[in-house]
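Field log, afternoon session.

UNIT: design team B
ACTIVITY: writing a sequence onto a fixed backbone
BACKBONE:
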């Protein structure tokens, strides 16, 4: 279950899931339940950070694109722009 979620989140191919499953089994055997929850919380936090950065990059790119588009649109009516 955890391996499937991680594979879905991080795009790990199915062929690599055997290695991930082995790592998951090792973690289950060595970590306590509380440590497993902390590890999953850490993974979730890192995933949320990545999503935030991606959204911020999109916002900044959209803002830049709209600004450039507005400059082009505004310059069409002014003879000094061409």
């Amino acid at each position: 279950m955890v391996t499937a979620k991680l594979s879905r989140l991080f795009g790990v191919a199915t062929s690599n899931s055997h290695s991930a499953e082995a790592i998951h089994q090792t973690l289950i055997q060595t970590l306590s339940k509380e440590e497993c929850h902390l590890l999953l919380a850490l993974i979730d936090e890192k995933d949320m950070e990545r999503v935030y950065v991606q959204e911020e990059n999109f916002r900044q790119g959209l803002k830049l694109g709209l600004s450039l588009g507005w400059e082009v649109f505004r310059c069409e009516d002014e003879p000094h722009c061409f």
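LOG NOTE: DSSP finds three helices and no strands in the chain.
NEXT ACTIVITY: expression trials, pending approval
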